[in-house]
Amino acid sequence: MNIRSFIYAATAALVVSYAAPAAATVYTEDFEAGFPAWESGWFGANSNAENCYGAGQGRGNNPDGLWISTVGQGCSSSPVTVLFDNAFAASLTSFSLDVAGATPTVLTIFDKNGATLFSTNVTLTGGYSTDPGAYVRYGATSNNGIGGFSFTGNAAGNTSIDNLEARDGATTGGVPEPATWAMMILGFGGVGAMVRRRRGVGAIA
Ligand SMILES: [Ca+2]
Ligand SMILES: [Ca+2]
Fold first, then answer.
1. In 10 A of CB 168, how many CB atoms?
2. How far away, in angstroms, is 64 Cα from ligand 2 center?
3. Distance from the CA of 62 to the center of ligand 1, in angstroms?
4. Termini Cα distance of the chain
5. What digits encode the pLDDT tens for the residues 144-186?
6. pTM for this structure?
7. What would the pLDDT profile of 43-94 be if each residue is shown by its tens digit?
8. How far is ligand 2, taken at its centre, from the CA of residue 24, in Å?
9. CA–centroid distance, residue 139 to ligand 1 (Å)
10. If we measure between CA atoms, which residue out of 178, 184, 167, 171 comes closest to residue 21?
11. Distance between CA atoms of residues 134 and 98, nearest Å
């Protein structure tokens, strides 16, 4: 390999090392668009979540959030467990949401294996009927995916959620690997050698 092709190879390695890291994807859902728009978004498409009034229905007396329920469950005053689809659950590293409870309930966020990441009694703000509503924010991070979240007690039809945010596991760093540093140093050395050689024989376009 001559100097010039070596420099091209080193430069190509450098470009690849900086192009590879991708920004984490942030998924948000604020339920502001007219229902049932959210059902075709990431939350509706990647979980068993459903409007307690049923699929394809309007938002009822909840102008800012969603009366959380699951497919076919309805507003049945029963516990709610929202599960993310397996591949999506495995990709997630954090999840947070706003909750406005109307009846006592415990929120639990769990990893892809069902292990608890976060659990708390929901503060009952009763703030689901205004826009903006009065909500309290909860969340969790995980190295083992986010499997979903649940509400105990009579949550279905009595617990509103809003402002969901989930992030996937893509790295945000741009630090080159040690092998790349070695290629960079060799590449810079190669440029210096070529410049010195050109000085010796006169400029060649
Ligand atoms: Ca709003
Ligand atoms: Ca909202």
1. 18
2. 4
3. 10
4. 21
5. 999 999 999 999 999 999 999 999 987 545 555 555 555 555 5
6. 0.75
7. 999 999 999 999 999 999 999 999 999 999 999 999 999 999 999 999 999 9
8. 23
9. 20
10. 171
11. 9
